[in-house]
Amino acid sequence: MDLGVESSNLSPSILFKAYFILNFDTELTYKIQMDRILIVFIFIALVFLPVISFAQEGNYVFHVEPPPDYVRDTVPEKSFADWLRKLPIKSGNPPVYLFNGEPKGNQAAHHAVLDMDIGDRDLQQCADAVLRLRAEYFFSMNHYDSIQFNFTSGDRAYFRKWIEGYRPIIDGNDVRWHKSAGVDSSYDNFRKYLNTVFTYAGSYSLRRELKRVENISDMNIGDVFIQGGFPGHAVIVIDMAANTTTGDKAFLLAQSYMPAQDIHILKNPDKSMLTPWYSTNFDGKLYTPEWVFEKNDLMRF
User: Fold this and answer.
1) pLDDT block averages, 10 residues each, the chain of length 301
2) I need a labelling partner for 143 at 20 to 30 A (CA). Which of 15, 48, 82, 207 fits?
């Protein structure tokens, strides 16, 4: 800094003043910079922390906290189990709605609601919700040939055939496929296929195409408790965890019901200390809020 005097004429007082001015200038600049940095941090905190907190509160199935001393099972990346665990759930504790927009009569059965539409027709009921999740997973992976389910008649409905423009002509238990549309692999067309499946399939047909899990301890994510009938019911295992000390297994269940309604994660009405998780160590009967299953009702795709 040029003070306008020769260095030989600088008195101690002038040097002190020069030092003070230089340091004051530097400190002032530093303070301004720090204030600006602080403002940036405050802005980031205000904008992003609510989002982070919201996600931690539970945007996905895997945000549902397991019981104390339990850790989630390790599952292969991009598997059906991994996909189910990453399903989005609605924030807070919203009501379960029916297909027509009316709230379900029983609002005490659910712990959380999946963030997934159900359409505007009374189609996606209990077994249909299981079919929907399975089909949505394969559609997301572009595994169209794996999307195939049985009608109650026993006839197989292939999505690949539907893509190619074939549609079923149904007369009682007689099913014939007739080409009546163009090739279309869009998501909208996929949903039309599912609506047809929901119309002509149910718990009776689904149970007949699943395989029994002989030992409850062999349960996997994606397995289904199902009783086939008219009506019957089905719930799907969407997550699992194990006790780090004892090895005991716990699982989450999701369902739709009648009439068609939001798919939701069930509470455990029998074990309030464990809810919404269920233990595989149940005595004979599995009590869910709206149905009672047996151990031998556990089935697998």
Assistant:
1) 43 44 46 49 39 48 97 97 98 95 98 97 98 98 98 97 97 93 98 98 97 97 97 97 96 98 98 96 94 98 96
2) 207
What pLDDT is attached to residue 33?
52
One domain, residues 224 and 278 = yes
Q: Does residue 194 fall inside a structural domain?
A: no
The answer to the question of residue 169 being in a domain is no
Q: With respect to residue 277, please indicate whether it lies within any of the assigned structural domains.
A: yes
CA distance 196 to 34: 64
Structural domain containing residue 208: 67-141+203-300
Q: What is the pLDDT of residue 256?
A: 98
pLDDT at 42: 38
Mention every residue, 6+ apart, whose C-beta is less than 8 A from residue 105.
none
- Count CA within 13 A, CB hemisphere, residue 46: 6
Residue whose structure tokens are 């869910």: 288
